Automatic annotation (TrEMBL):
Homology family: Belongs to the TRAP transporter large permease family.
InterPro entries: DctM (IPR010656), TRAP_DctM (IPR004681)
NCBIfam families: dctM
Quaternary structure, from the entry: The complex comprises the extracytoplasmic solute receptor protein and the two transmembrane proteins.
GO MF annotation terms: transmembrane transporter activity
UniProt-recorded name of the protein: TRAP transporter large permease protein
Entry membrane topology: Multi-pass membrane protein
Function statement: Part of the tripartite ATP-independent periplasmic (TRAP) transport system.
Domain named TRAP C4-dicarboxylate transport system permease DctM subunit: residues: 12-427
């Protein structure tokens, strides 16, 4: 069996096992383990490679960023900072056509800078923003589409769990991945706001909404009290990493500590909620560790099968251009996005394509940003758009169906694709900040 056949069969086997109900990292690990066993007819070799994969994942110092940033995001969410930043943004945008939608995008971008989770963003803003938009007669599809679209900012604006997972799979610096995500994240947020403005101007019926009658600006004191905690947290975490004063692990620890202090000062943290945050952090950390371990043995299996060399040979023989490889890569991610979640897509496609990208002298940090945004589009596409399911579950509103959420999110998925093409053509947008 050729390396290409092994690679294709392994991907198909993983997808089949996932749809049969097997936990994704288990499916990834089982396929890799059995493949090595069958290829080399050596059970002991499979066991040894599994031990090495587990050891490499657990002993990695930078893995400490996962529980620290996860805990910080949960604390911030429980402290109600997402609702605060939304109120501030909404006071400034309310009179603009589609303004509450723009406020949602802006608040989501700021909230993403401390949570790193699209699921948390989708849950918070589905409860805060959608009822406000419906109150002003916005089109329900537009309302849920804005929340779904802007929720993905949590996966690209640092600190992001997906950037951490990619950094482990591709063996890149977590700090560099975080810095490289800043400009693309801001660019995506700006593109969303521009798209909402264009919708309001050219297809106002789709946006809907009526002018706010009780509109008034917040006082400076009110704006400061609601934004200062979140801004100080972002400054400590990202400022610490950017200036080099803090490593990503230290920034995560500092952010978690400051977030906890803010929650305590605001009276939003009880012993019960603190314990809940700790337990949830443990669950999320364990699942991410499991994912990274499974990805590690999968990439070793592909290497053992000789797939990297085979792909390099095919590239040389067919003289495939950089753009052709990118088209194939993005199409594969869009296809897998209809079947799998973001982390699973990253774990499957990155080991397959890294051997093609590295010899071309391209930045693996830039490639990580492309990968995360490409995989994120799947969060908005049926049948497995996780953000869409979270929004529907959070709303519990019979007026809005799951179909409405998916249809509303499609324009924002298209905007993401446009931004992705822009980032592929101009890598400096991602990695310029590193130089």
């Amino acid at each position: 069996m050729s390396p290409i056949e092994i690679g294709v069969i392994s991907v198909i086997a993983i997808i089949v096992l996932v749809y049969l109900g097997l936990y994704i990292p288990v499916a990834l690990g089982v396929v890799s383990f059995v493949s090595i066993w069958l290829m080399r007819d050596d059970f002991e070799l499979s066991m040894n490679l599994l031990k090495i994969a587990v050891g490499d994942s657990v002993m990695e110092y930078t893995f400490a960023t996962v529980p620290l940033f996860t805990f910080m995001g949960l604390i911030v969410s429980k402290a109600g900072m997402g609702a605060d930043i939304y109120e501030v943004m909404n006071s400034g945008f309310k009179k603009v056509k589609g303004g509450i939608g723009m406020a949602t995008v802006g608040a989501n971008a700021v909230f993403a800078a401390v949570t790193g989770s699209s699921i948390a963003s989708a849950s918070v803003f589905a409860k805060v923003s959608v009822p406000e938009m419906l109150k002003y007669d916005y089109n329900p599809r537009f309302a849920v589409g804005v929340v779904a679209g802007s929720s993905v900012l949590g996966m690209i604006i640092p600190p992001s769990a997906m950037l951490i997972i990619y950094s482990f799979v591709a063996e890149q610096s977590v700090g560099e991945m975080f810095l490289a995500g800043v400009v693309p994240g801001i660019l995506l947020a700006a593109a969303y706001i521009a798209a909402i403005w264009l919708m309001g101007k050219f297809i106002p019926k789709y946006v809907g909404g009526k002018p706010a009658t009780e509109y008034e600006w917040m006082s400076f004191k009110e704006i400061f009290s609601k934004t200062a905690p979140l801004v100080s947290l972002i400054t400590i975490v990202l400022g610490g990493i950017y200036t080099g004063w803090l490593t990503p692990v230290e920034a995560g620890a500092a952010g978690a500590a400051v977030g906890l202090i803010i929650a305590l000062i605001r009276g939003k943290m009880s012993l019960k909620s603190f314990w809940e945050a700790l337990i949830e952090t443990g669950h999320i950390t364990a699942s991410i560790l499991f994912l990274i371990t499974a990805a590690s043995i999968y990439s070793r299996m592909l290497g053992l099968a000789g797939l990297p060399n085979e792909l390099a040979l095919i590239l040389e023989q067919n003289q495939m251009s950089f753009m052709m490889i990118m088209v194939i890569y993005v199409c594969l991610m869009l296809f897998l996005g209809t079947l799998l979640d973001t982390s699973s897509i990253i774990l499957i496609v990155v080991p397959l394509f890294l051997p093609l990208i590295e010899p071309m002298g391209l930045s693996l940090v830039w490639f990580g940003i492309i990968t995360v945004i490409g995989a994120e589009i799947g969060l908005l596409t049926p049948p497995l758009g996780i953000s869409c399911f979270v929004i529907k579950a959070s709303l519990d509103d019979d007026r809005i169906s799951l179909k409405d959420v998916f249809m509303g999110s499609l324009p924002f998925a298209f905007v993401m694709l446009v931004v992705l093409i822009l980032l592929i053509n101009y890598p400096v947008l991602s990695i310029g900040i590193l130089h």
